[in-house]
């Protein structure tokens, strides 16, 4: 009778979710992280709306937005989505 090793291969482990895995669940975030993320997003909305207000009619036509729609969006405060 031939002696066979009891564990010929290393044990299988559950795959670890990496930071690059788009399907991995988001890490738990505390109130401070959510607040910082909200501030970052609000600043981005403010910049985008300011730039939208500066576009001329040709540029607005290129992106498919009327002057009145651009003005309405630009008038929104940064905290409003």
Question: What this model shows, in words?
Answer:
The protein has 81 residues and is an all-alpha fold. Helix content is 48%, strand content 0%. The protein starts with 30 loop residues before the first helix and ends in a 7-residue tail after the last helix.
Write the layout of secondary structure elements.
Layout: H1 31-54, H2 57-63, H3 67-74
Helix pairs in contact: 1-3
Note poorly predicted spans. Answer: none
Number of helices: 3
Radius of gyration: 26 Å
* Overall 3D form: elongated
Question: By helix and strand content, what is the structural category?
Answer: mainly alpha
SSE sequence, one letter per element: HHH
**Considering DSSP H and I runs of 4 or more, what fraction of the residues is helical?**
40-55%
Identify the notable features of this structure and list them briefly:
single chain; 81 residues; mainly alpha; 3 helices; elongated
What's this model, at a glance?
The chain has helices at residues 31-54, 57-63, 67-74. The chain is mainly alpha-helical and 81 residues long.
């Amino acid at each position: 009778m031939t002696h066979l090793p009891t564990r010929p291969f290393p044990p299988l482990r559950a795959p670890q979710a990496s930071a690059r895995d788009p399907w991995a669940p988001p890490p738990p975030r505390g109130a401070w992280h959510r607040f910082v993320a909200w501030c970052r997003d609000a600043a981005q909305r403010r910049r985008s709306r300011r730039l939208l207000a500066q576009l001329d009619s040709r540029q607005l036509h290129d992106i498919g937005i009327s002057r009145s729609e651009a003005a309405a969006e630009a008038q929104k405060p940064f905290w409003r989505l």
